[in-house]
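Recall the central idea of this unit: under ordinary conditions, the amino acid sequence of a chain determines the structure it adopts. In this exercise we apply that idea directly, starting from the sequence alone.
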Amino acid sequence: MICKNYVVAGEDVNDVMIMESDAYISYTLRLLYRFLFDNGFSKEKLNALHLGFQEGNHELVCYKNLMFTEPFFVKIENCCIDDKIKIKSCFFNSKNECCAEVIKEVEWFDHIRREVITAPKQILQYFNQNARA
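Accordingly, the structure predicted from this sequence is:
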């Protein structure tokens, strides 16, 4: 679907130089924003529409540790955009071994009303058409 290369940075690791669980979630959300940007919905456009995200549940399964300065890539395997956005992302090391999987749920948030809302029609319509392609 979409993937991006990264390198494990200092702020991503704990005292023994292993990538922390919060970093996996952060990279998953970064890739979601990248996916939306690539499909015409930049952060600026979302802000103009007064839209953001409220984070929900997540599940992280680590198979192998990613270490400080290690190159890796994140791939969104599945992204269901509806009233809730459900993302499954996989993290691969430079040997193309799956090191971790994240399943993350986020909801659309209206900054003006300060509440969780249903998916905006202009966004939902676009992604429903994309999902069938």
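Residues 129-133 have pLDDT under 50 and may be disordered.
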